[in-house]
Amino acid sequence: MKIEKVRIKNFKVYLDTEIKDLPNFCVFLGANGSGKSTLFDVFGFLSDALKNDVKTALGRRGGYKEVYSRNGSGDIMIEIKFRNSDIDGKKQPLITYELSVGLNDANMPIVTKEILSYRRGRNGRPYKFLEFSKGKGSAIVNESEFETKKQEFKDQREEQTLDNPHILAIKGLGQFQKFHAVSSFRRLLENWYISNFQIQAAQNSGDTGLSKHLSTTGDNLAQATKYIYENHPAVFQGILDKMKERVPGIEKVEAQETIDGRIILQFSDGSFKDPFTSRFVSDGTMKMFAYLILLNDPEPHPLLCIEEPENYLHHDLLMELAEEFREYSDRGGQVFISSHSPDFVNALEPQELFWLEKKNGHTSIKRASDDPMIMALSKENQLGYLWKQGYFIGSGPNTK
Q1: More confident residue, 288 or 356
Q2: How far, CA to CA in Å, does 209 sit from each of 224, 256, 263, 289?
Q3: Coil, strand or helix: which one is 258?
Q4: In terms of C-beta distances under 8 Å and separation of at least 24 residues, what long-range contacts does 218-225 make, across chains too?
Q5: Of the listed ranges 14-18, 160-164, 224-228, 277-281, the one predicted with least confidence
Q6: DSSP letter (8 states) at residue 184
Q7: By C-alpha distance, which of 30, 169, 38, 158 is closest to 98?
Q8: Rounded Cα gap, residues 149 and 179, in angstroms
């Protein structure tokens, strides 16, 4: 699955902003407070709304008034356009999900509009496979005929009423396989991943057992390592080979179970006879290893959002880390990253780089490849250098 466009309206600093033609690997630059974390939190909000409801999701962010943009007009609106992975080399239709959240007469947040639609080709009319407002609506139940019958497709709809108007329709309908488009988008929201690695948590030992996926904080790194080692030995060997390339001296990594049932990571350095437990390993080594575990997950997440991956890492490793992220995206995942590191940015291509500009309390997003001067200068200069020299107008705290 690939997200191609995101439009955000009346959500914190985003009064009305869109980014389109998104590649699989995107890096966002911007000053502190410009909205990088908020951009990622759009997916967090949708995920919370799916797991609970929009009232709870807003409450976790301070409530409707705290989320709503200053000087905004209309409802909070989020629109995401995406495609499912190709089937037998055939490009799948563009799917649009649009969610609007407003207040009812009792001043309580409700879903004022929720639409999921397909568009066949650039000029074909969209089919609204799901259309709900204030807890009532309908969904197409013969979606499987959409591609086979082409222009002769005639939709069959099923009316539905939700328990509450602040519940997402995709929460319930996404459970049923006959609603393929709804289920697909639901899986994206359920399986997206925002990294919040806590080095100390990753260095501690964990309870016995296995974890199929690395947690967002990395506190189950030992269990995730043990799972890959025992169930996907070839993948684990590839991770170890990369660790040897990235971190001088590292020859072996093991997840050992202690007498009291805890699991600890041990790193073997060729310069020493005995291995080191993870709490004696450098922060940078732990973070690189955690990223390699994440990026080589046998069941990868459809979307990774990672803030400032450069923290704790030597600048010489950043170009290699960027390549790891790019390889993940080449395998079909999508990666959104925020960064403050020119060294990391030096590893990027213009089409992968975006920057945030905040004016009068509101943020817009620009693409490096749309700027003629940056494109001309990037032929002979690295993008991180151009950033430091101030060519990304509005991307820094002192740039006008």
Answers
A1: 356
A2: 9, 11, 8, 20
A3: coil
A4: 218/290, 221/265, 221/278, 221/286, 221/289, 221/290, 221/293, 222/255, 222/263, 222/264, 222/265, 222/278, 223/255, 223/263, 224/293, 225/253, 225/255, 225/265, 225/293
A5: 277-281
A6: H
A7: 169
A8: 17
